[in-house]
Write a structure and sequence with these properties.
Radius of gyration: 19 Å
Shape: globular
Structural class: alpha/beta
Strand order of the largest sheet: 9-8-7-6-5-2-10
Number of domains: 1
Largest sheet: 7 strands, parallel
Low-confidence stretches: 262-269, 288-300, 330-340
Amino acid sequence: MWFMRQAGRSLPEYRVVRGQYTLFEVCDRPEVCAEITLQPVRRHDVDAAVMFADIMFPVLSMGVDVELVENVGPVVREPIRSRADVQRLGAGEPNERILEAVSLVRRELRPDQALVGFCGGPFTVAGYLVEGRPSREFTRVKSLMYNEPETWHALLERLSDNFARYVAAKVEAGADVIQLFDSWVGALSPADYDEFVAPWSARILAAVDVPTIHFGTGTATLLRSMAAAGGDVIGLDWRIPLDRGWDEVGRLFDASHRSMRTDFEISCPELDCAVAVAVQAGAVAARMTGGGFGGSSVAVVPDERVEAVMRAVDAAFVLEGFRSPVHLQAVPSAGAGVVG
């Protein structure tokens, strides 16, 4: 069960640290970054830690000037709009300080606790670079894709090369799992995804020899394409019924020993709401995999209810005869969540 973007809101110790440093400053300080990553693990004794970072952090090494503006998101000083803009990007190398933070966290975790590292998906990060700030329409992005496809592919080649080195270095430093967060890829049609994004996502996911999670939102029409691009786990957002998700790609995953993660956004204050969704996920997973590992679900619950939800879901799984769910919790960052 993944409590998306929950931990920082529920942990006063996180808010104290974030009151002293910006997000990029945290990423640049190994001890602080490790401490924030470990805070929800200590408080809730979760089964895995999600490495604190931001999906825009790797592009700093490429010479991109980006600021994380409160209540806005990433704002790029000089957006990428031409082939010349792409050519001025440096190759970039993984930041040694974030890798040191990964190693610090791995040393602090028990052997039975996993460490999840992540990076941004190529479309989502390219979207910020081209638009210059968050967008819902991606007008400039689609104009570049359709009118200058060579420029678009040159940009995604540079990003995917950088991100592939980044996630490989995280694994070498101690990450046990890598998640690719392509949050806004649902803005594309299946044909556009296959042509303009899939090859580059595949390159990143193939760069590591550990389990990988492939996640996006608004991806109801992209599930098969995302599964083809790669990932040992495919995320479903709250718009996709579990049965439909399994019908789309779940059986393919079962045959290849891959899995699915089921993501839900729950805003109701009652525990019953979160428990019902988690049990539904467990029931579908058990039915489709013969009782083996299925997916995890994402919940957004009132801050003080995180532990109560975890206990209630564990109890419900026991009553239903399912294997106890894996819990993960992470502090908020661009793409990170709480994994309980």
